[in-house]
Each structure stands twice: as structure tokens, then as C-alpha cells.
Amino acid sequence: MTTIRIATVVGARPQFIKAASVSRAVKAFNETGGPVQVDERIIHTGQHYDEGMSQVFFDELHIPRPEVNLEVGSGPHGWQTGAMLERLERILRDMQPDWVLVYGDTNSTLAGALAAAKLHVPVAHVEAGLRSFNRRMPEEINRVVADHLSAILFCPTVVAVRNLTNEGIIRGVHQVGDVMYDSVLFNLGLAQRSSRVLERLGLEPKSFYLATVHRAENTDVPERLRGILAAFRDIGRPIVLPLHPRTQKTLGAGLAEVAGHVRIIEPVGYLDMLILEKNARLILTDSGGVQKEAYWFGVRCVTLRDETEWVELVEAGCNRLAGANTGAILSAVADFESGGARVPQSSRGDLYGDGRCAEKIIQILARGADT
User: Fold this and answer.
1) DSSP class of residue 243?
2) CATH number for the domain including 281?
3) Which has the least CB within 10 A, 106, 140, 248, 291?
4) pTM higher than 0.70, yes or no?
């Protein structure tokens, strides 16, 4: 029997949720009793220290706890990435994995890919090929470098494959779908059974807009945040806004007054967020993941950014790019409310695979890089 050793490097709550789908696929793969077994070890860089990532978080979402926590913590990009590199190199030397698996576009993604490449351990990148074409975003730098260091690139969409082809990356590219879709399919049932967020907030389905604002490009630029909040004020409908700590800090500095119909709440857990998204009348967000979740739930989405990695959602007509311009946001909302753009009525996963992304990832890793 052959054993494939995988070191999974994650550092933020969304990465744990995505990685959980792959860990479940590892367990199912091993239970088939085939000639190849997969031994996965999870390394948490500690990029985001989050009180919410308690034992309840791991138990509720059926997420394996990390074997190692590097406890790097927050800090400037260079320092944080350097600290991760130093500690990851030591851990990976001890683990001797056959593959290092990284997710998305965080500093943990970059550090995991760099550490593995320098130790000549092949890298597999989940969510490969995404591009905003905005090099001012640290996420764009992280994802581009990770892709160019990877031996296997797991792409969520045909657009992602095309982006890699345009950069000369052809070998080891696999369009497997979006692992977040696997996660939503698995966790929605848990959310519907356990979440009481609508009752707790006194909300009726489809009676409210849901908003999230967390990206530094919006929260750290006063005129952009003012433009977004002015749009929220002029929308006039009830808006639920789980407030990210970064945004809270900026608002606390007296940047702008929030309209009374904007209901600010503490950040919510993943299961509560799924229920809020599913029941929202419309979503306004600068989050990449929330854009896709809106699509899967058939909810129209106004994206508070000037560009998106998920261009297929814009092309499908269910997502509008509005940036932080008050007029553009209001125009997009009015157009959706008037029925000017339709939410696709076909299967919600048709743009992002069939919900078996994690299974495909493990099968490919078990076969090796030359498939």
C-alpha cells in the first residue's frame, strides 16, 4: 500500500472551511480501501487569531483541528510572510510531505508555496487562476506567485484556466469546480437545523438587504467608505451590516454617521451567515466568497469593488460591479429592484462545478502531478 503525505497550510477561517471539504474527501477516499492512502496533516499559520475559532467552531462544522499552530499572528505583510516562512520551513523538513496544499490568496498561501518550493516539495494550489488584474491588491500578488510555483493547479472555472493559459501555465492545470460550493452544500443543512439568527434579529425572509464591507481598499480609504455609507443611507431599505473589526475601527474614528435603517451587528459565524445570505432580498459586498454564495442562493449581488475575480457572475447578469461610487451603487440596486437583471434560474452550481470538487482534488493528488 502506498501512502501519500499531504501538508495542508491554512491561516484564516475561510480557508479552514474550504479545507474541511477536502479533509472529508480524504476520509472518504481512505475508506474505499484502495491501494493508495492519504495522510493529511494540517498546519495553521496563525495568520488570523480569531476567538471564534474555538472548539465549538471545529466541532460544529466538522473541521479537523490543525496538528500544528505556528501562532504567527497579525502584522505587516513582509514581517508576517517572513515569520511564516521561517517556521514553515522547519515544520515541513520534519513532516517530509509529498505535497503541500495551499488555498486561495492570503499571506499563508504565499508563505506555504514559497516554503515548499524552496524545499523542492511540489505545491498544489486550490482556487488557482483567479485574477483581478489589480497588482495593488496584496491578494493578487499572493495568488500569482502561488500559481507560478505550483505543480498542480486546481481551477474553479474555465475563466481561471484561461487566465493561466495566458500566462503560459498549461501543465498540471485541472478545472475541478469550486471547493466553496462543496462547503455550502454540506453546511447549509447544518445551518438550517441550528441557526436562529433570523429569529434573534427579528428578520423576515426577503425583508432586508445584507451588506459586508471589510476590504482595506474600502475601509482604509475615507472617501470610498463615505461613498458606500452614503449609498446605504439613500437606499432607505433595512440593511443588516455585520461589522468587520477593521470597519468598526474606522467608523469609531468618526468618519461618517451610519443611517438609522442600517442595522449594525457583531460579526456572525459561518452558519448564521449562510442563513442571512439565503434569506436576504439583495446583497451588497466587497467579499469574493459572498459574491458566489449570493449566486448559489439565487440572491442578486452588488459588488462594492471596481473589479472582481468572479467575472462570470457579472457576465451572467446576477452581479453588478459598483465600486464605492454612491450613484453607481444606487443605480445597480434600482436596476435589480426593477427587474432589469435576472438571477439565473438554472442550477446554482453550474458555473462552479457539481459540488464534488474536493473529491476530484484528492483523486488527482493520489495519482500524482503527471495526470
Assistant:
1) P
2) 3.40.50.2000
3) 248
4) yes
